[in-house]
Amino acid sequence: xxxxxxxxxxxxxxxxxxxxxxxxxxxxxxxxxxxxxxxxxxxxxxxxxxxxxxxxxxxxxxxxxxxxxxxxxxxxxxxxxxxxxxxxxxxxxxxxxxxx
Length: 100
Known about the structure:
By secondary structure, this protein is of the alpha+beta class. It contains five helices and three strands; from the N terminus they run ααβααββα.
């Protein structure tokens, strides 16, 4: 999941889907500086990670975010953030109590 989000282009696609809702490859390619083929490849990586899914609307494939999966990412990042906050607080307390 994080490997999929670690790519700048994929992260931009996710951000675009967050802002604008479901979109076709054509619409996603308009705002990207990559080819339609590259956007398709990135969407497949995001789909494999469970972050997006697609469905047909006529002749087009429409891509949308998977909110549950993004919520999992958020919870995991919140846990990591809390752990770092605690670690930094302990480090600060240790540094402040040590005499020079």
